[in-house]
Amino acid sequence: MTDLLLIRITCPSQRVAEDIGDAAVEHKLAACANLEGPVSSTYRWKGVVEQAFEYILWLKAPKANWDRIEALVLTHHPYDVPAMVALPCLEAHAPYAAWVHENTES
């Protein structure tokens, strides 16, 4: 098991996803940000089923940076409850894991 996280965040627009990803990398909280989308999302919000197009932001970061990344997202994300989850990275190519650590500050 590595100490790396793959953090998945849904965003309402490409601009929001890019802004959060750029800030996470610039502040050395994440080594890398990837953007996917748009994707079609269906969800229940305040008792109503909603549909929207969203963008998926992936951040690669050490687990030690979770709290600071969460704070960054809550500051920049327009949703009341951003969908933000972290998946543990069970294995990683050793040179890549080293690169993540070299490009972040925990």
What does this entry look like structurally?
With 106 residues, the protein is α+β, with helices and mostly antiparallel strands. It has three helices and four strands; from the N terminus they run βαββαβα. Helix content is 31%, strand content 40%. It is elongated. The model has no long low-confidence stretch (mean pLDDT 97). Strands 2-3-1-4 form a four-stranded antiparallel β-sheet. The longest helix has 13 residues, at 14-26.
> Low-confidence parts lasting 5 or more residues at pLDDT below 50?
none
Kindly report the average pLDDT value: 97
User: Judging by the overall fold, what is the CATH architecture?
Assistant: 2-Layer Sandwich
Distance between the termini: 18 Å
Q: How are helices and strands ordered from N to C?
A: EHEEHEH
| Percent helix range | 25-40%
Total number of helices: 3
Radius of gyration based on Cα positions: 14 Å
Largest sheet: 4 strands, antiparallel
**CATH fold-level name:** Alpha-Beta Plaits
Proportion of strand residues? 35-45%
Briefly note the structural class of the backbone.
Answer: alpha+beta
**Major beta sheet, strand line-up:** 2-3-1-4
Shape: elongated
How many strand segments? 4
The CATH class is Alpha Beta
